[in-house]
């Protein structure tokens, strides 16, 4: 019963944070607006005033994108942690995001060189292919080495290699494309259109639905593959589903926002500790909300801290995400009862 | 063999198509305890893994409840056979009650929500094994012995008709060994549970088993009740204990017959 109360309190807190950050992200910027103004402008989508256009064409899609993609990253991390049975697994630390980034850069340069504009679905497809390639490599390595530390080092190395190749590509890309490509390769939620938001909402919410549908076997998989199989989980299928789903979710993020680091590790950690359970049915929606809250907060800082200069979103998420990961790891090592 | 719950015929088991143990003919009846004994590395675990579908047989057949084990639907298998293997799970943030509840998986719906009946099964299993007091404790923070009993409760609340255990008493102190074996004996007698396990402790195997299966040299060397198997001569042969070693032990004051009570 104590746990039920804790879960309800946790969800209430996350929803309150999400609500206030959504409003705050819409209000704060080069043109400040009061919440009252926001609500009246939101009632009239076709408004032609400068404020209405800033709200409807820039801040609103960007805010939704940060929330959706943040949720997707946290989910992707949760799925990978289930797969590897290790809390340090995540799309960024395993090099999966970097693989996606390289594939997207290749696709963009190929298309731009021919004067084509790529639809966002094509970007997601490229990112997905890149994610699967990096994941495939990590899986091949994990067949040989069981130690998570070694896997992480492999992931970081893949990350460096892919980033280096991406940087090279960006450097030698046509002048006209460099600015766009450079911004994207640093990671940012800026420049998101409504069409992008529709596509990402479709992919991310479908991914969330699939993840929820897997919550029962994922719960059983926490005791390891042998005991999961013994109660009737099709382990081989579950593992394939986890990999495809986590790659798709992190690919979607990379396609639209470039690399965003540490959200996938930090948020599931925080949420599980806050809720005191790793039960997927309770933790998955909370991870999604937590990821949204975390990225909304980081994006707010990224665009306001040194306005008008924007920070790369990955720099901000790393500043808040990496220490959380370190702190939690050290606390767990300490073996105290509140862990 | 019509009344056997588990029945193997000329089974060979191994890894990657290479047989480790050949000619396995075992049958386990409801209410009986069958124990595999034999030297380290003889392939006892490999046999048990094959009989719980963790490994595909390299030859021969396994029937569970009159059906082919390897084509049985996952859920039917899960409702018939529960396991307690040597793997020690270390799940993140799971209480002991959560771990036991995992055994209800084959009975719950799409989302895995527990009904009142499921919760009653979990309570019953925890009471039976004597771990009710651990319900809210984090599974990774209880002792090895307690963890093993919690895993046994998990297997029991799966409501199997056959329980398969690989070295369930290793690394446990006497209290937990005694508790675990008492629960098994009790379930076999009262609920006609069939039990198949491997044990290293010969004295325990002798006391608790209805049938012993001796695994050595890549085959099933002998199958029979304890009195047929526990003779000093046969035990020495099964475990490769030489006359020299027995003589050395005697010289040091260790008498093999006294140690194991043959």
Task: Characterise the protein shown here.
The complex is a heterodimer of chains A (339) and B (262). Chain A has one domain: ABC transporter involved in vitamin B12 uptake, BtuC (Orthogonal Bundle), CATH 1.10.3470.10. In chain A, 78% of the residues lie in helices and 0% in strands. Chain A has helices spanning 2-27, 35-42, 50-84, 96-113, 120-144, 148-172, 175-186, 194-213, 215-221, 225-230, 235-257, 263-275, 280-304, 313-334. Chain B has 2 domains: 6-230, 3-Layer(aba) Sandwich (Rossmann fold), CATH 3.40.50; 231-262, no CATH class. In chain B, 37% of the residues lie in helices and 22% in strands. Chain B is an alpha/beta fold. In chain B, helix 4 crosses helix 5. Classes of the chains: A mainly alpha (339), B alpha/beta (262). Chains A and B meet through helix 9 and helix 10 of A and helix 2 and strand 7 of B.
Number of helices of chain A: 14
What's the overall average pLDDT of chain B, rounded? Answer: 92
| Name of the CATH architecture of the largest domain in chain B | 3-Layer(aba) Sandwich
> How many structural domains of chain B?
2
CA-based shape of chain B: globular
CATH superfamily of the largest domain in chain B: P-loop containing nucleotide triphosphate hydrolases
Structural class by secondary-structure content of chain B: alpha/beta
| CATH homology group of chain A | ABC transporter involved in vitamin B12 uptake, BtuC
N to C succession of SSEs of chain A: HHHHHHHHHHHHHH
Topology record:
The complex is a heterodimer of chains A (339) and B (262).
Chain A: H1 2-27, H2 35-42, H3 50-84, H4 96-113, H5 120-144, H6 148-172, H7 175-186, H8 194-213, H9 215-221, H10 225-230, H11 235-257, H12 263-275, H13 280-304, H14 313-334
Helix pairs in contact in A: 1-13, 3-8, 3-11, 3-12, 3-13, 4-5, 4-6, 4-11, 5-6, 5-11, 6-7, 8-11, 12-13, 12-14, 13-14
Chain B: E1 6-15, E2 18-24, E3 27-28, E4 33-37, H1 44-51, E5 59-64, E6 67-68, H2 74-80, E7 81-84, H3 96-101, H4 116-129, H5 144-156, E8 162-166, H6 174-191, E9 194-198, H7 202-208, E10 211-216, E11 219-224, H8 226-229, H9 232-238, H10 243-251, H11 256-260
Parallel strand pairs in B: 4-9, 4-10, 7-8, 8-9
Antiparallel strand pairs in B: 1-2, 1-3, 1-5, 5-6, 10-11
Helix pairs in contact in B: 4-5, 5-6
């Amino acid at each position: 019963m104590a746990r039920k109360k804790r879960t309800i309190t946790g969800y209430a807190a996350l929803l309150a944070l999400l609500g206030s950050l959504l409003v705050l992200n819409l209000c704060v910027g080069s043109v400040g607006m009061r919440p009252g103004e926001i609500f009246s402008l939101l009632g009239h989508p076709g408004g032609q005033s400068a404020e209405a256009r800033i709200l409807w064409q820039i801040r609103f899609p960007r805010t939704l994108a940060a929330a959706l993609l943040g949720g997707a990253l946290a989910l992707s991390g949760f799925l990978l942690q289930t797969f590897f049975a290790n809390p340090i697994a995540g799309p960024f630390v395993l090099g999966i995001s970097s693989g996606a980034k390289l594939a997207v850069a290749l696709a963009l340069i190929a298309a731009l060189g021919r004067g084509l504009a790529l639809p966002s679905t094509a970007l997601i497809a490229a990112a997905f292919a890149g994610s699967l390639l990096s994941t495939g490599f990590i899986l091949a390595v994990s067949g040989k080495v069981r130690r998570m530390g070694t896997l992480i080092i492999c992931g970081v190395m893949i990350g460096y290699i892919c980033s280096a190749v991406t940087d090279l590509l960006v450097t030698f890309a046509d002048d006209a494309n460099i600015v766009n490509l450079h911004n994207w390769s640093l990671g940012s939620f800026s420049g998101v259109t409504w069409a992008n938001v529709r596509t990402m909402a479709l992919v991310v919410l479908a991914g969330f639905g699939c993840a929820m549908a897997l919550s029962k076997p994922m719960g059983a998989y926490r005791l390891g593959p042998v005991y999961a199989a013994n109660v009737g989980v099709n382990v081989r299928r579950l593992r394939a589903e986890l990999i495809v789903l986590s790659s798709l979710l992190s690919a979607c993020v990379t396609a639209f926002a470039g690399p965003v680091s540490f959200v996938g590790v930090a948020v599931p950690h925080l949420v599980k500790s806050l809720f005191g359970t790793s039960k997927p049915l309770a933790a998955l929606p909370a991870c999604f909300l937590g990821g949204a809250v975390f990225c909304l907060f980081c994006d707010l800082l990224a665009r306001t801290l040194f306005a008008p200069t924007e920070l790369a979103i990955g720099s901000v998420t790393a500043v808040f995400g990496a220490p959380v990961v370190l702190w939690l790891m050290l606390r767990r090592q300490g073996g105290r009862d509140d862990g | 063999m019509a009344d056997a719950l588990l029945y193997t015929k000329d089974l060979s088991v191994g890894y990657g198509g290479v047989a480790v143990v050949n000619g396995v003919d075992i049958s386990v009846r409801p209410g009986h305890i069958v124990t595999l004994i034999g030297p380290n590395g003889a392939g006892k675990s490999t046999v048990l893994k094959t009989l719980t579908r963790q490994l595909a047989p390299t030859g021969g057949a396994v029937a569970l409840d009159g059906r082919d084990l390897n084509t049985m639907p996952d859920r039917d298998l899960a409702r018939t056979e529960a396991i307690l293997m040597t793997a020690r799970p270390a799940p993140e943030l799971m209480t002991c009650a959560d771990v036991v509840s995992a055994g209800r998986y084959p009975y719950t719906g799409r989302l895995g929500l527990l009904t009142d009946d499921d919760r009653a099964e979990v309570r019953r299993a925890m009471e039976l094994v004597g771990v009710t007091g651990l319900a809210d404790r984090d599974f990774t923070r209880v002792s090895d012995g307690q963890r093993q009993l919690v895993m046994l409760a998990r297997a029991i609340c799966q409501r199997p008709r056959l329980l398969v255990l690989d070295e369930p008493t290793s690394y446990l102190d006497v209290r937990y060994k005694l508790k675990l074996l008492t629960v098994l004996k009790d379930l076999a007698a009262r609920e006609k549970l069939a039990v198949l396990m491997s044990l290293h402790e010969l004295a325990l195997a002798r006391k608790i088993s209805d049938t012993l299966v001796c695994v050595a040299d890549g085959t099933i060397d002998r199958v029979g009740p304890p009195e047929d198997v526990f003779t000093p001569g046969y035990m020495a042969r099964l475990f490769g204990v030489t006359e020299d070693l027995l003589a050395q032990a005697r010289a040091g004051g260790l008498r093999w017959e006294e140690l194991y009570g043959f």
